Amino acid sequence: MLSGLLVITLLISACSPERELSDVKAELLLTGARVYTMDGLSHRPATANTVAIRDGKILAVGLRENLQALIDPSTRVIDVGEATMLPGLVDSHTHVPELGASLSKVNLTKVKTETQAVELIAARAQTVPNGDWILGQGWDEGAWANHYPDLKLLSEKVPNHPVFMRSLHGFAGWTNQLGLDRAGITRDTPQSAGGEIGHFDNGEPNGLVLNRAVKLLDDAVPAPDLAEIKAQIVAGLNQMAADGYVTVHDAGLNSVLMQALTELEAENRLPIRVYAMLSARDQALSEAWIKRGPDSDNDRMLVTRSVKAYYDGALGSRGARMLDDYSDAPGQRGVSGSDYGFDQDLVTRLMASGFQVGIHAIGDAGNRDTLDYFASVFKQYPDSQKNRHRIEHAQVLHPNDLPRFSQMSIIASMQPPHAVEDKTWAEDRLGSKRVLGAYAWQSLYRTGATVIFNSDNPGSDHSIFYGLHSAITRQDKNSEPIGGWYPDEAYDIYQAVGAYTLLPAYAAFREAQTGILAADKWADITVMDIDPFQLAVSAPDKILNGKVLMTIVAGNIVYDALQVPSTSSGNE
């Protein structure tokens, strides 16, 4: 069986007619680089050093001496200094509004203890008026699951500000007494479907909420106005541009966020492309788009043809739905389906209306149920199967379910950083046998499945260098464990780069426009200072030290760390 990467490469290459050199001249010429076009079917070195661009598209790719006919005195020529040029990177599962908002929150991603987190919040409280909310983000709900914090120390040190600290992946929230008061959470507050409010032995709430109960704190924090939301989105998109991404697939946008994005597109303020995934939890929004139908114009900066739904919770908070009990929590199997807010009727109607659907599924039972659900819809609406539906995360899979992705043409949307971040506790949750089906990228690939890689930011660091390093080494940023965590599931570098470039192009129905560097494709390009293909063989740890030098979208330089003066051929 052909692998997913090979099949998609063939499809994309088939859409890439060679353009004859003519009197048309390049507006922009990038040269001096090792150019990896990603249109080859095997590992091979870069065979070009120059890309010529005009009218937002690639005019030609090749050696500089062979492209002289495309240059005239008006051509802007930039020598990128022996950098590496790749098809523009795509983060195919992000939360850019949250990323933008998180830039102003207390960063808790590196804290190891409750005391450290409280100290950071208390320090922020010194700069915030009494009574205003203090927001933090990033403590690891998986690593802390056996010793979750409570409100005692936090309330003692920060008594005059309501606090909401969202966990790394968003499936847990931590607050103080004033935060509980603002949220109206008392000992009499009923447990929400698919969520859990923590309590002390005396029955009083302890300041911790899990899974869908996090919404209680979300709803208590005053919502930013539309102007603030737009500013957060632009900040998030600019950060993604600075980190080399030309496109994001934003997973789970509600009505307000869609309004903000629509206005930003109309104002020509989107620096990179946004492939919008509507939130199926926003029923009014979903119903409106069912009447309207999905977008089909790929050339717009904002394209809406996908939907995000949730089937189960997260592994770290033991909300992922498992076929058998959690190994470290007998009697617990997680939560899923309608108990976790999955509206089967609504999602089915969205699929029948032509939308691509990406369903969040983490546990082996959650993934099996989701695959079964897709199969049932395909029987009812056979044409729906062509819409490249996705499972977001596909984190823990029973061996019997691995080949079903390829058989049903379901895309596995996965996050390399999750494996290396979860490795310290995932086996405790799953046990030594079940963990073999977790973060199983290579096992899925070998079945012929299409696997795309992404970050799920801001829950994980979205650095492409971190993502590639995680994918090919199965090691964390400290190069641990030696040899990698279950290294048989590691990708090679060609697979990994493809999972951030040409395969996300296919996942967004854009293989005719992008995914490789070739004539007539969009001029969406990422330039970096390292060659990941060479370092993957010689020194993979050095990939972590890479830097993005330039990001180009539709021929426009949207991020430029080089700031080198351009020249024209008339001066050479």
Please give a structural write-up.
With 572 residues, this protein is α/β, with parallel strands linked by helices. The protein contains 19 helices and 22 strands. The strands form three sheets. Strands 1, 2, 3, 4, 5, 20, 21 and 22 form an eight-stranded mixed sheet that branches. The chain has an eight-stranded parallel sheet with strand order 6-13-14-15-16-17-18-19. A six-stranded mixed sheet has the order 7-8-9-10-12-11, sandwiched between helices. The longest helix is centred in the middle third of the chain and has 17 residues, at 226-242.
Number of strands: 22
Question: What would you call the structural class?
Answer: alpha/beta
CATH fold field value of the largest domain: TIM Barrel
Average pLDDT value?
A: 93
Largest sheet: 8 strands, mixed
- From the alpha carbons, calculate the radius of gyration and give it in angstroms: 24 Å
Question: Count of helical segments?
Answer: 19
Helix content: 25-40%
Considering the protein shown, what is the CATH homologous superfamily of the largest domain? Metal-dependent hydrolases
**Poorly predicted ranges:** none
Can you name the CATH architecture of the largest domain?
Alpha-Beta Barrel
Total number of distinct structural domains: 3
Q: Report the principal-axis shape.
A: globular
Beta strand %: 15-25%
- Straight-line N-to-C gap: 51 Å
The level 1 CATH classification of the largest domain is: Alpha Beta
